[in-house]
Amino acid sequence: MKSIVKYLVALLLVTQTALAQQTETVSKIVAEGTDNSQLENLAHQLMDVIGPRLVGTPQMKAANDWAVNTYKAWGIEAKNEAWGTWRGWERGITHIDLVAPRVVTLHGTQLAWSPPTPKNGTTAETIVIPTIKDSTAFKNWLPNVKGKFVLVSMPEPTGRPDYNWKEFATEASFEKMKKLREEQTALWDKNMNNTGTGRDLNKVLEKAGAVGIVQSRWSKAFGANKIFSANTDKIPVVDVSLEDYGLLYRMTEKGDKPVIKVLAQSKDLGVVPTFNTIATIPGKELPNEYIVLSAHFDSWDGGTGATDNGTGTLTMMEAARILKKVYPNPKRTIIIGHWGSEEQGLNGSRAFVEDHPEVVKGLQALFNQDNGTGRVVNISGQGFLHAYDYLGRWLAAVPEDISKHIETNFPGTPGGGGSDYASFVAVGAPAFSLSSLNWSYGTYTWHTNLDTYDKIVFDDVRSNAILTAILAYMASEDPEKTSREKSVLPINKRTGKQATWPEPRSPNRKGGQQ
Ligand SMILES: [Zn+2]
C-alpha cells in the first residue's frame, strides 16, 4: 500500500514538472514571437527585394537560396531539394500607352510566360471581337486581327465592387446594374462559345496574325486584376486595368480607332530545375517521427505574392526560428517544407510525398497555412477520427487570446485540393490546414496585381507564427503517436452518395506553360 502511494506521489510530481515545463516553454514562445519578431524584416527581404516567385523564374530560385541562407544563419539545417523541371522565364519591363487619338499611360502588365514584343515595342490599332453567329463566321472574320492588338475580355459595366454599390446606390439602381451585368455576361459567354475556340482563343488569334492580346481579368475589387499566364508562343499578352480596358474597348467599338504602343520584355530561359526548400530541426528521442510546418513558396507574379503565400511562408519560418531558440532539442524531428509549385497543382508537396515515404510514415502532424494574412480562425480534423483528441490537447496549451478566435470542426471531411496539406491527407497522413480570416483575400489579393507587402496584417501573422510554434512543440512532445483512423464520411446532400477519401495524385514534374 505504502509503495503505491509513493508511486502515485512520484507520478504526480513528474506530471506537475512536465506541466510546469510546458507552461514555461509556451510563455517563452509567446515572448520570443512578440518581443523579438522578425516578420517585418523577413517580409521586406522576401516580398520587396526578391519579389514574386513564379515557378521557373530566377526569382523563385533566389527565394530558395535566401531561405536556405536565412535558416543557416539561425543555426537550422536547410537545403534545396530538386523535384522536377519547369519552363524557365524572366519578366522584363512592360509599358503600355494609348498613343492616338490622345496619349494615356495605361495601367497594365504582361502575363506570366508572355513572349516579348520586338525590342522597340509594337504600335498598332486595337480590335474587338464582333457578334459571331458560329465558328464558320468566326473563321471568316479572323483575318481582320492581322497586325492588331485584340481585346479579348468583356468590358465590365462598373468598376465599383458590389459592396460599394450596396452602400450608396438606391436598391433599384443596384438591382438594375446587376441584371444588366448578368445579361451582358450571358451574351458575352454565348458569343465566345460561338467562336468555337474554347480555351485556345489566344493561340488562334496568334496564328491569325494578331500582334498582341489585351485582356482585363477583373477581380471584383477596386484596382484588382487576376494575373495568370499568357498561353501564346510568340505574341505578348498583357492585362490592363478595368478602367483603361473600358476606355480602349469603348473607343474601339465606337470607331475612334485607338492606337496603343506596347513594350514588353521577357526572357525564355528554356527548361530549368525546380526545388522545394526543406529545413530540419532533428528530433532527439524520436527522430523518425515528424512534425511538418508547411507553406507553398511559389506565387503568381502579378504582385509579390505577399498573402499568397508570403504570409504562410513567413509564419512557418518565424515559427521555426522561435522553436530553434526556445526548444532547440525537440523530441520529434521538425521539418519546414517550402513547396516549389503549389499554384500549378500542388506539385512541390506531391513530389515530396512521393520522394519521402519515411516522412509520410512517421508523420505526427502537418500544419499548413495558405489562405491569406488573417489570424487563424478555423481548424478541421480533415476526417481523422481521433483528431479531436490530439488537436484538442495541443490547442489547450495555446493562450486564450489566440485560441478564442479558432473554431474547430471534428472529425471534419478530408480536403482534396486547395493547398498542400491535401497532398498528405490523400495518403492518409494527419495533415491540417490553419485556416485564416479572409481580409478580402478572394477579391483583393488572391492572384492579383495588389498582392503586396502593404496588405500584410503583421499582428495576425505574428499570432499565427506563435500558434504554429506552440502546436509544433505540443505535437512534438505528445506522449502518443497520432492516430490515422479515418472517420465514416458523411453523405453528400447534393449527390446523395457517401463522400470518399481523396486519391493520391502524382505531381507534374515536367511543367510547361500552365
Ligand atoms: Zn496559395
Walk me through what this model shows.
The longest helix has 34 residues, at 2-35. It is elongated, with a radius of gyration of 26 Å. The chain has a 15-stranded mixed sheet that branches. It has helices spanning 2-35, 39-50, 58-73, 135-141, 162-168, 171-195, 201-207, 242-253, 306-326, 347-355, 357-361, 387-395, 400-403, 421-425, 441-445, 458-477; strands at 77-100, 104-105, 108-110, 122-128, 149-151, 212-215, 237-240, 259-281, 286-296, 332-339, 363-368, 376-380, 407-409, 431-436, 510-511. Helix 9 links the parallel strand 9 (286-296) and strand 10 (332-339). It folds into 2 domains: 33-87 and 271-508, Zn peptidases (Aminopeptidase); 102-257, 3-Layer(bba) Sandwich (Glucose Oxidase, domain 1), CATH 3.50.30. The protein is of the alpha/beta class and 514 residues long. The protein has 16 helices and 15 strands. The termini are far apart.
Oligomer: single chain
Helix content: 25-40%
Q: Tell me which ligands are bound.
A: zinc ion
CATH architecture of the largest domain: 3-Layer(aba) Sandwich
What is the straight-line distance between the termini?
72 Å
Number of strands: 15
Structural class: alpha/beta
CATH superfamily caption of the largest domain: Zn peptidases
Strand content: 15-25%
Count, helices: 16
Tell me, what is the CATH class of the largest domain? Answer: Alpha Beta
* Radius of gyration, CA atoms, in whole angstroms: 26 Å
Q: Averaged pLDDT, please?
A: 96
Total discrete domains = 2
Shape: elongated
Uncertain parts = none
**CATH fold name of the largest domain:** Aminopeptidase
Largest sheet: 15 strands, mixed
